[in-house]
């Protein structure tokens, strides 16, 4: 699938944290992200979701991801938060409920092509019995 997506990741840098470790956390989930710092916050830009999608598949959290994507959808933009510590370990863990004391990675994906639903189906396909449903299986 060919898609056009702009991903913006922001993360606060608290006084007890090392910015390079937060940058590593971002790059562990979105390899190739271009990260910049303004001292208090890291801002990263990315355009590929391949590795992120692989992590969702490997961790078998496709349904959770779909729920987070659609609950944070506004028009063609998906917004969600990820836990920094989990991302540092190369793991996707959606931040829900009470905010983590260190803050989270705030992710915004603006989808230009295809539709948001088609994009979500690509990144985190629907499942049946915990396994992705293939296009042929939907009939």
Please tell me about this protein's structure.
The protein is α+β, with helices and mostly antiparallel strands. Helices cover 32% and strands 30% of the residues. The protein is built from five helices and eight strands. The longest helix is centred in the N-terminal third of the chain and has 11 residues.
Give the topology.
Blueprint: E1 4-12, H1 19-29, E2 34-37, E3 41-46, H2 50-59, H3 62-71, E4 73-74, E5 77-83, H4 84-88, E6 104-113, H5 116-123, E7 127-128, E8 131-132
Antiparallel strand pairs: 1-3, 1-6, 2-3, 4-5, 5-6, 7-8
Portion in beta strands:
25-35%
Strand order of the largest sheet: 2-3-1-6-5-4
Determine the oligomeric state from the structure: single chain
**Spatial gap, N to C terminus:** 21 Å
Residues in helices, as a percent range: 25-40%
CATH topology: 50s Ribosomal Protein L5, Chain: A
- CATH-defined architecture: 2-Layer Sandwich
What's the total count of β strands?
A: 8
Helices and strands, in order, run as EHEEHHEEHEHEE
- Enumerate the spans where pLDDT stays under 50 for 5 or more consecutive residues: 135-139
Mean pLDDT: 87
Instruction: Name the shape in a single word.
Output: globular
- CATH class, named Alpha Beta
CATH homologous superfamily designation: Ribosomal protein L5
SS content category: alpha+beta
What's a quick, concise take on this entry?
With 139 residues, this protein is an alpha+beta fold.
Key phrases:
six-stranded antiparallel β-sheet, disordered C terminus, two-stranded antiparallel ribbon, 50s Ribosomal Protein L5, Chain: A, alpha+beta, 5 helices, 139 residues, globular
């Amino acid at each position: 699938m060919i898609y056009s997506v702009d991903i913006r990741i922001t993360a606060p840098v608290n006084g007890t944290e090392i910015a390079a470790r937060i940058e590593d956390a971002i790059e562990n989930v979105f390899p190739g992200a271009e990260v910049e710092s303004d001292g208090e916050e890291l801002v990263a830009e990315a355009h590929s979701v391949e590795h992120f999608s692989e992590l969702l598949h490997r961790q078998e959290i496709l349904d959770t991801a779909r729920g987070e994507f659609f609950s944070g959808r506004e028009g063609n933009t998906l917004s969600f938060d990820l836990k920094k510590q989990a991302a540092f370990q190369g793991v996707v863990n959606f931040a829900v409920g009470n905010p983590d004391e260190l803050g989270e990675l705030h992710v915004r994906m603006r989808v230009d092509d295809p539709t948001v639903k088609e994009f979500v189906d690509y990144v985190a396909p629907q499942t049946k019995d915990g396994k992705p449903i293939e296009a042929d299986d939907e009939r």
